[in-house]
Backbone:
């Protein structure tokens, strides 16, 4: 059967409602066959046959069914709806089905449920035309290219971590009456001499491979620090070049007001971030009387930097770190700014190579290209949309639905265990009034939190459970043939990349100071042992 088949017959162009009314008129004796046929524009012979069928079965819905040809659909409408729901559920859990997976699953469903089908028994898969028809009947499904998502991100973005982050955020906003011009987000990204993403081009049809000129096979990476506010203001970026000495030529045509630092690795370091933070205090006009909020990820240069913490406490800057592995959904820069910046940077690099034939992009062109991309991407609507999509401003703790946490539900994370782990950790607070937001004081409160969280997750599991007899249209459901992967986590994770906390609070600072003091003691002991060894030798 051709997938683009167009109907050529004029048969059965009547509507089901017209046929229903005609059958009722003839059956009750109000009209004869000919009169009803003319009045409702239905074929006389068909009307006669349908009236006889209705007299035998007394089922008007079956009497008005339109069907032509000898072929029947393999699955009923309810079965296809269940299959489509299963496909969307697997995609939400980051276990999406490929086209071959779906075709193989359709064959297994037909076989195990003993349904009559015309699928290929040699390949044990449904046909390509069935797949195309299935996608047409379910327009909310399409073949997409997935984005690689680590298991840590899939399990890290869970309801417990997100709820804790929003509780800290709302407490800070309400306590200090913060407005959007006082809420900032900072993050670093790597800009390379070879752009990360290349645009699509028009080439010869049928050619196996098309190319686009780049500076080299592998590029040099320059770290750039960006910061924006919920109001839409952007701080001039900071460049970290992978070299020992700085040259003024590196900042030719750089964004106005931007600065630069050098380090052999090209990555952000604690001292470099401290210098940037001093500039941020000036840019944000933070003080004890006009406090501001800075949101950042759990990188060690941010959260384990006592110099930054002391500067922030002295100048009225409150810092909240995002939960581990959640920045792809919670950080405004990741959600709304860095993607267009990367796209515009690729466009600028392509244009530069076109206008400078024979030359390649080096570190000395990075600032200029970033400037062109920054001018196009640093807009007020992008900033507003980025903060709105993450629920940070306007504050919206319910921005994420149960479907957004399905991936974490796959790992069967025990919420009671997570809550207990977060209780055991030292929970910082910016003042005495905030202590209740950061720690659960007693067992009763812990039980209250546990009960409130378990209920929606239980409902979610029940709603997504395809094995429920009341929700099934198959005798053997898709979830039974291809079960949803589960991974029970029994070990408590001790090594974590930061944690959700107000890192400018006294408890957090004291904890960090103690850790640093212990590290210094161990380092001094090792130095003494090494010096003694050299003296003996």
Residues:
């Amino acid at each position: 059967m051709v997938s683009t088949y167009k109907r050529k017959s004029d048969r059965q162009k009547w509507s089901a409602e017209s046929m229903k009314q005609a059958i009722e008129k003839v059956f009750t004796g109000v009209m004869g066959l000919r009169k009803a046929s003319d009045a409702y524009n239905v074929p006389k012979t068909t009307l006669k046959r349908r009236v006889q069928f209705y007299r035998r079965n007394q089922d008007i819905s079956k009497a008005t069914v339109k069907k032509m040809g000898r072929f029947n659909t393999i699955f009923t409408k309810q079965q296809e709806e269940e299959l489509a729901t299963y496909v969307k559920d697997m995609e939400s859990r980051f276990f999406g089905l490929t086209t071959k997976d779906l075709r193989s699953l359709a064959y297994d469903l037909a076989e195990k449920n003993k349904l009559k089908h015309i699928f290929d028994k040699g390949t044990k898969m449904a046909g390509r035309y069935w797949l195309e028809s299935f996608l047409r009947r379910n327009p909310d499904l399409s073949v997409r290219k997935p984005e690689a998502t680590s298991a840590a991100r899939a399990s890290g973005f869970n309801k417990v971590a997100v709820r804790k982050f929003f509780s800290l955020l709302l407490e800070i906003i309400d306590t200090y009456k913060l407005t959007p011009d006082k809420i900032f987000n900072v993050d670093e990204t790597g800009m390379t001499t070879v752009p990360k993403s290349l645009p699509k081009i028009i080439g010869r049809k049928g050619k196996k491979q098309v190319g686009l000129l780049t500076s080299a096979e592998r590029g040099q990476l320059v770290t750039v620090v960006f910061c924006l506010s919920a109001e839409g203001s952007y701080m001039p970026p900071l460049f970290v070049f992978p070299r020992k000495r700085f040259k003024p030529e590196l900042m030719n045509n750089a964004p106005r007001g931007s600065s630069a630092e050098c380090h052999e690795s090209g990555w952000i370091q604690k001292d470099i971030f401290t210098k940037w933070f001093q500039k941020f205090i000036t840019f944000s006009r933070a003080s004890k009387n006009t406090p501001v909020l800075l949101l950042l990820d759990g990188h060690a240069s941010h959260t384990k930097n006592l110099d930054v913490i002391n500067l922030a406490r002295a100048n009225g800057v409150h810092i909240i770190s995002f939960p581990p592995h959640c920045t792809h959904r919670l950080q405004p820069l990741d959600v709304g700014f860095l993607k267009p910046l990367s796209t515009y940077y690729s466009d600028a690099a392509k244009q530069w190579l076109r206008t400078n034939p024979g030359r390649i992009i080096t570190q000395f062109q990075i600032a200029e290209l970033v400037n062109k991309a920054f001018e196009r991407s640093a807009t007020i609507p992008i900033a507003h949309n980025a903060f709105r999509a993450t629920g940070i401003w306007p504050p919206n703790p319910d921005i994420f639905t149960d479907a957004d946490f399905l991936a974490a539900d796959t790992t069967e994370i025990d919420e009671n265990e997570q809550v207990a782990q977060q209780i055991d950790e030292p929970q910082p607070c910016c003042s005495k009034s905030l202590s209740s937001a950061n720690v659960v004081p007693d067992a009763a409160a812990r039980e209250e939190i546990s009960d409130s969280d378990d209920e929606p997750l239980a409902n979610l599991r029940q709603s997504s459970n395809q094995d429920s007899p009341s929700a099934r249209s198959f005798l053997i459901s898709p979830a039974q043939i291809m079960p949803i992967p589960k991974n029970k986590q029994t070990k408590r994770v001790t090594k974590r990349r930061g944690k959700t906390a107000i890192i400018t609070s006294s408890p957090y600072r004291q904890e960090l100071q103690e850790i640093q003091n212990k590290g210094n003691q161990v380092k001094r002991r090792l130095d003494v042992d090494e010096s003694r060894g050299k003296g003996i030798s």
